Write the structure tokens for this entry.
Amino acid sequence: MELERFSYDNRLPKYFAYATILWGVVGMLAGVLIAFQLAFPFLNLDMAATTFGRVRPVHTNAVIFAFVGNGIFTAIYYSLPRLLKTKMFSKVLGNIHFWGWQLIIVAAAITLLAGYTTGKEYAELEWPIDIAITLVWVVFGINMFGTILTRRERHLYVAIWFFIASWVTVAMLHIVNSMELPVSFMKSYPVYAGVQDALVQWWYGHNAVAFFLTTPYLGLMYYFVPKAANRPVYSYRLSIVHFWSLIFLYIWAGPHHLLYTALPQWAQSLGTAFSIMLLLPSWGGMLNGLFTLRGAWDKVREDPILKFFVVGVTAYGMSTFEGPMLSLKNVNAISHYSDWTVAHVHIGALGWNGFLTFGMLYWLIPRMFKTELFSKKLASAHFWIGTFGIILYAIPMYWAAFRSYFMFKAFTPEGQLQYQFIDIVQTTVPFYIMRAVGGTIFLLGTLLMVYNLVKTVSKGSFVESEEAEAAPLAKTYAPTGKRFWHSVIERKPILLLVMSLLVVALGGIFELIPTFMIKSNIPTIASVKPYTPLELQGRDIYVREGCYTCHSQMIRPFRYEVMRYGEYSKAGEFVYDHPFQWGSKRTGPDLARIGGKYPDSWHFNHMLEPTSMAPGSVMPRYPWLFRRDIDVASTNSKIHAMRMLGVPYEEGYEAKANEDLMAQADKIAATLKTDKIEISSKKEIIALIAYLQRMGKDIKAEPKTTDK
Amino acid sequence: MSVIIVMLVGSLIIAGGFLIAFLWSVKDGQYDDEYSPAHRILFDDTIKDKPIK
């Protein structure tokens, strides 16, 4: 058979690699900033754009979608053509993909800092950006499947399966979770409310971890670890088995983020059961990665790249052991809302994603520049610094979590809570400092890598494209040996594409959800009423400032929570919450029943200067809320949108919504005046106070059913 | 809680598809050749190092 000549493009992998490095540094810098902010609140700088609640989403989004995202694309644009012995399907699509993704990242950073957010973790971006993400993702998909279609290698290597599953599932997750009704150009409400929104969000959230941070990186592992060690993968059979079982199990695990919440019990148990089962396929992947180095451990001693891979894969094994453990309800009771979760994700993010990315870059950049790595010693130093950084990050967080747990549940012999929330905050601060130092050390290691790679690039000469040759696919395929159904799919890329699209079409089915949703948003607790226009505006300010990044709105049914925060939360209380704001971390106390707990003036002073009301608080100040006017022009469209989503505002309420808003605002201003506080009733703080004072109160109007 | 039903159906379709695929692959002996794919990726087909005739 005639050999065909073609070439592998190195330009796009290089661009993606540079983007990975750039956004990695940016994302880690943001992380270091917010870590220090938790210990030293003055670092919030009293400006909206630099305050924790806005920078934290920038950190998470930058690290997940910019750093790891570009890492995924680097790996795919480099390995896919080589695995399939063809060039990438389209250079134009590749360029659109690259520049589109970077534009989205820039837009994301700007809009998040400006306060445009949906208030759903890891899905904070507003609807125009959500649409852009969908389009770029489709472009990426066409380019990937196009490459698979035009391949010269019949067999689809296991890494490609991981890439395909990632693409399909992320597409579906993104579409379903981003179902939102635009209110204005940069504001929308999710179609789901309360418990339903929480469930969709964590179904998305958990699978974002699974199909954005895990499966594509397993694909990366299956290509780059064998390549770097020059060994075949330990067990090809295991790779296929654990691939199928992993994707089968992952999709069910989401509810483990909602244990002990108002989510129905059976859904919680389902999430727990599948999370525990996940241990097996996860460890299959880890062992397969580690055993690939069997008989090559001497190389690990010499080669910093393999060192990164070994610790990265080990970190994967540790966090996928920890994950199932955290899904056990009794363990979750300790870990939920605590710093344990933060430590857990950083073992994964810094260890697994970080170290695998570093290993890949150290392997890839010299190859693309036809040279040796500038300094192996520096890379080795980076490895040790990074490892130390992870340890210094994680241990204080674990410690802090247990410490605070025991403080939370400590009662005096008289049956009173022994510690105030602020006591727990203050004992945690030293741990925040240690964690921030650990993160800084990790960042320093990364900067060492930047220097090393810049030096490598400057001494090498870039190979724009690599010539290759391979035989074309035979028109008719004569199978040798036994035939399997699997190989049938592998030989028929169109069938594969159709099947993938079928799975994606499921996303389309999910688009019908809104129709279902609106009906089931009917309140189950009669006393729960929609928010007043002022409270609604206040709630949007709460979302905008990212209050959910530190405060939960979900009281779990434990004695120590009920005594501290009030009656545990009921599903029916959240039916008008678009979006839900249950949160995932309690740096500050739960706010589900904050309404009526303190006078208006307390909130006023607390938002202006938190330590005046709560000495020792690490909460930022919010001076701009006292300067900015409530956006009354948006009230109409907000009320209208909410009614479309099933919130029972009467027809035509838009017309007098602002009247009601001003009346309520004047009342709050008048109350503040009795406490000698002069403020215009038009300011945003008034709306926020209205919302805070409303929270969790409705249920108290419910007639008592129990006899005393 | 209608969203649970919808998500359950969707997830079941995906997961069920994966399950059938997996059982089928085991039954059909899909994993007989587990040698060549793992080794093939280690060989470069680039021709930069070869003398071009």
Observations:
- The two ends of chain B are 70 Å apart (CA to CA).
- Residues 2-27 of chain B form the longest helix (26 residues).
- Chain B has a mean pLDDT of 67.
